[in-house]
Amino acid sequence: MTWYLVxxxxxxxxxSCVMLMVLFYVTHLFPVSPxxxxxxxxxxxxxxxxxxxxxxxxxxxxxxxxIAYVQNRLSGDFGVSLTSHHPISxxxxxxxxxxxxxxxxxxxxxxxVGIPIGVLASFNHHKMTQNVIVATTLTGYSLPVFWIGLMxxxxxxxxxxxxxxxxxxxxxYEIKPVTGFLVIDSLLASKQYGMSAFYDAxxxxxxxxxxxxxxxxxxxxxxxxxxxxxxMSQTYIRAAExxxxxxxxxxIKHALPNALIPVFKQLGVMLGPFASYAxxxxxxxxxxxxxxxxxxxxxxxxxxxxxGGVFVVALLIIFLNILxxxxxxxxxxxxxxxxxxxx
Length: 343
Fold this sequence. Notes:
343 residues, MetI-like fold, mainly alpha, dipeptide transmembrane transporter activity
């Protein structure tokens, strides 16, 4: 097990280094001087130019420049924004919680809705029903996320006027950040606003969260259905049925935990598409997260924002992907047996 963790740590370091190399190379392709692209100071004074040159070793060879670049980025120094003139790290701390909140709620919707549907679908052997489930999940997986967002916003936000279609909360409310999740923070601020701020934040997140959950929801339904069908045909399930155990008890205690293992594994594979979908959803609903901030930086040619946003999103995907792989190996009895058998 120790060697497995060491290999995964080496994979994380190697992948992160490749990502940093790509970012470092792209930085020198920006149509501005390296000092401006790295620091975000559009018109540096002679003293500022000297500091930037020393910090990023711009007068040295390319290897020294890359080492200085990595040291600055890993220390949290991403420069300042060309448009707002605020430190990139400070802006990241503002927009990251909103993206995490949206992603967590969308993931919960996908799991809470998708797993029961997948389990029920696995017990329905009617051919027409199976074809409808497969067609529906394939359609939901294939439809462009921005089109789904626009349609939901048009139907429920504009035509019915049930839900807001942009922003995170009404500007009338000033919620003090505590956890970073506005839905929770607005609930904590109930002494000041009652429950109105909480309901308003909840209404704002429904449409973007539902839109973002479509992709993982369809995948969870399909994998849960397939995994449950495979698990229910195993010998130990038949033995449990022969002992007279109730069907619900067999599903919850024996079948479902084993069927969820491939679902959990698939979550790591979906992180990349999920992140790209999240960016489109944030732009579609003006959700103030990393994706909306990053796309705004691209439109405004804010090169430090582009670097900071891509760096954080890519590093999170790499880290979470490897973390899910490690947890899957620890949870999966077969993989766990193989790992411990090697030691």
